[in-house]
Write a structure and sequence with these properties.
The chain is 47% helix and 14% strand. The chain contains 30 helices and 25 strands.
Length: 788
């Protein structure tokens, strides 16, 4: 029986930590675990067999770090051997009912635009592993320990495009329920469900007790089978070895609690052993099993935000669209991304929940422009986007590169159109707008529009697209040519809600085309539409009258508790029209805080005309970075915005340097950064580097997989007072401890700060570090204390 036939219908159990057991069997500090697939296969067979005999139903191949970046020469042999070793263990254990998961971990690189790895290159890297592993006989693909939802998407697409195996995904959240790049439980679930994975969940980083709130949220919002693979508690160093603080009995008890929270697949990660798994299986196997429950939630997401379409109307900003906007058309033709980004930021500031993105213009390469605008917007904005195009090619480019589950505008009732659009929705995920028109045009009455809506729902279902992922556009037609058109639209909204149980959307301003004082008509019609069940409104959120109508409706209809939203918006400001940030002057500090690189350069040049360079740095740039850093620490902005702000500041710093006519800015101190021997994951290190340099520190970046001797020699030669060390994997923390020990011998006056997913404050202290940095800004703060 295949695993899909059992998944979500009975308890299934993963194995535990492979690296933990390999270390016990002699894996040296800095040695790459995947090489043992070829050099010591008998050890891998023994490890897999031990887990099978402990009761695991699924064992993971020893290929977590196997990709062409790490193994450019012998990747196929390593992956094939990894699968063969698991198959041999299954044979020896007499467990033909067990399944082999092709284990895929992160590349260790940040994807563009935050990092330097192109999205399609990431898909290629993962695809190579999938092809080899599937051909070797893996039963499923497990994409695990993902801290970036965008990289997880690349891996899922690679799996689905290169094999037909079931795909499961687990990500790594911190104690606040956030990914490294800012994703939440809700946004991750929306993305992965949209991509049609077979199961999803959480692994690594935390013990079962710390994971409990995350598991509860997963169970509340996900309709898929859930996987939970915690660490054996929190790590510490003991006699040069990494050990964890939860024994097998305690682990099993805690996992029994987790199992009853709506989880379906249980296992372990770092620090867990066959003993942990055996005890867990014994406790959990006899517990009542509750299959997954379909939640029927209509959710649109970005990398860090999830917007649920439901009882409270959602605002979709309409300004990123060339229709009737000469300045926007010019920005598209001139590739003026800063203007487009500013339009997005203004709509975010004025209350939009989602932004419509339409870049269709005659003579323009729409697919290329759609890809560029979507990726640039997502580098500075956290709002979800609506990809708006009639071109299937442009739609696919936008959907493929989008980080999240977008809205898609649109499909209609024409058979040819549905055949073109629905396969894209099926593959990439999204909430699609269904226009109530077909081969015969737009019906004049609500009955005809509802009939088309039914057909759209029915056809979507044949592609596996649920009704909650379809939002019906009742089509607002101008009353200037048909005085009854508004009533038809309102009846359509009401009937889709009441008869079909569906959600609706309108381009509200279409109702007033050709009339004077359009905003007056628009605002009143908007209120009427919401009263008749409108779920999503495509409007201009910069128009004060529209937002006043919206907030007043929420207050009057009981959707704004204690009128908190209305009071927050209008309690201390006059009734003044709002302006577009794209057309207003923005200060240097604002440019840095919003990540507007080109505008930051121009603002710096303007300031330098009447201010000395150091005043520009100390009065504008550093305070802006401080505010962004504080907001990052408080969870108000996320990693993409932090990095884009740092890039904007860096560009402005270059302008300031030029103005100083060759006189370099005094550096605040010299810092070494390195990812320790055996670890190729340098995402965290690279983020720290960007921030330290922006705060005026000279960074000596030694790269990844750096031997202790190299770090020590550099510290002595360069007389460095602060060394930052990074590690992601349990198997490489031993190298970190060895490096610290050597530094204490040769450079005892140096301070050492450490960070990484497997570390804690107590663990850092136990291996001799002076400080533990839970994120990049923590490293900056510690550097400030070291150098004054």
């Amino acid at each position: 029986m295949g695993i899909k036939e059992r998944l979500g219908k009975e308890w299934l159990f993963f194995d535990g930590g492979t690296g933990t057991l390999l270390q016990e069997r002699g894996l040296a500090a800095g040695e790459l675990p995947e090489t043992w697939n070829l050099t010591r296969p008998e050890e891998l067979v023994a490890v897999h067999r031990a887990y099978l005999e402990a009761g695991s139903d699924i064992i993971c191949t020893n290929t977590f770090g196997a990709n062409a970046l790490k193994f450019p020469d012998d990747l196929p042999a390593i992956v094939q051997a990894g699968v063969e070793n698991a198959k041999e263990a299954r044979r020896q254990a007499g467990r033909p009912d067990a399944y082999i998961a092709l284990d895929i971990g992160p590349t260790g690189r940040l994807l563009q635009p935050m990092g330097d790895l192109p999205f399609e290159r990431a898909v290629e890297l993962f695809g190579e592993v999938v092809r080899v592993g599937a051909a070797a006989g893996a039963d499923l693909v497990l994409i695990e320990t993902m801290s970036d939802s965008y990289e997880a998407k690349a891996a899922v697409l690679a799996a689905k495009e290169n094999c037909t195996l079931p795909v499961m995904v687990t990500v790594i959240f911190d104690e606040k329920g956030k990914l490294l790049t800012g994703g939440t439980v809700d946004s991750v679930v929306a993305l992965l469900e949209g991509l049609r994975v077979d199961a999803l969940g959480v692994n690594c980083g935390l013990g079962p007790a710390q994971m409990l709130p995350i598991v509860e949220r997963l169970a509340a919002v996900s309709s898929l089978p859930l996987i939970v693979d915690p660490n054996a508690g929190l790590p510490r160093s003991e006699d040069g070895r990494t050990v964890y603080d939860i024994d097998a009995d305690t682990f099993a008890t805690l996992m029994g609690t987790i199992a009853q929270k709506g989880v379906h697949v249980l296992g372990g990660c770092c620090g867990t052993t066959p003993a942990h798994i055996r005890k867990m299986v014994a406790v959990c196997r006899s517990l009542p099993f509750v299959p997954p429950v379909r939640k029927r939630r209509a959710v649109v997401s970005s990398f860090s935000q999830a917007v649920e379409i439901g009882d409270t109307p959602i605002i979709i900003g309409e300004r990123i669209n060339p229709t009737g906007k000469s300045k926007f058309k010019a920005a598209l033709r001139e590739n003026n991304m800063e203007y487009i980004l500013a339009e997005g930021l203004a709509q975010e500031d004025n209350g939009a929940h989602i932004l419509d993105v339409n870049v269709g213009l005659p003579g323009l390469d729409e697919p290329t422009m759609m890809a560029q605008v979507v990726t640039r917007l997502q580098s500075v904005l956290a709002l979800p986007l609506q990809i708006d195009t009639s071109s299937p090619e442009a739609m696919e480019r936008g959907l493929r590169l989008y980080n999240g589950k977008p809205m898609i505008n649109s499909v209609n009732g024409k058979q040819e159109n549905m055949k073109a659009v629905f396969p894209l929705v099926r593959k990439y995920g999204g909430v699609v707008v269904g226009l109530t028109l077909d081969e015969d045009g737009i019906p004049d009455d609500a009955e005809g529009r509802v009939r088309i809506a039914r057909r759209i729902y029915e056809t979507a279902a044949t592609y596996g697209i649920p009704p909650e992922d379809v939002v019906i556009d009742g089509l607002a037609m101008t009353i200037s040519s048909d005085s009854g058109s508004a009533l038809v639209t309102l009846e359509t909204l009401r009937r889709v809600r009441d008869e079909l149980g569906g959600h609706t959307i309108l381009g509200v301003s279409n109702i007033s085309f050709g009339l004077p004082q359009r905003e007056t008509i628009n605002a009143h019609f908007f209120t009427m539409a919401m009263q008749n069940g409108l779920s999503c409104a495509i409007i201009n959120p910069n128009a004060d009258g529209m937002m006043r109508a919206y907030r007043a409706f929420l207050a009057l209809s009981g959707k704004d508790a204690q009128c908190a939203g209305f009071i927050a918006a209008y309690g201390d400001r006059p009734a003044a029209p709002q302006t577009s940030a794209a057309e207003s002057t923005v200060s240097l500090s604002e440019c840095v805080e919003r990540g507007l690189r080109e505008r930051a350069v121009e603002a710096a040049k303007a300031l330098l005309q009447d201010r000395p360079p150091l005043e520009v740095v100390d009065g504008s740039l550093i305070p802006a970075l401080d505010r962004v850093g504080k907001d990052f620490e408080q969870g108000k902005v996320f990693l993409p915005q932090l990095l884009m702000s740092a890039e904007a500041a860096k560009a402005a710093f270059e302008v300031v340097k030029d103005a100083m006519r060759g006189t370099p800015r005094e550096m605040r101190g010299k810092v070494i950064l390195a990812t320790v021997k055996g670890d190729i994951h340098d995402i965290g290190k690279n983020i720290v580097k960007v921030l330290l340099e922006n705060y005026g520190y000279q960074v000596i970046d030694l790269g990844k997989d750096v031997p202790p001797e190299t770090i020590a020699e550099t510290a002595v030669r360069e007389q460095v007072q602060l060394i930052g060390l990074s590690a992601l994997m349990t198997t490489t923390v031993v190298s970190m401890e060895q490096t610290i020990r050597l530094l204490r011998e040769v450079k005892p006056d140096a301070k050492i700060v450490v960070g990484g997913a497997v570390l804690t404050k107590d663990y850092a202290e136990s291996i001799g570090a002076d400080s533990y940095a839970r994120d990049a800004m923590s490293t900056v703060h510690y550097a400030d204390t070291v150098f004054g």
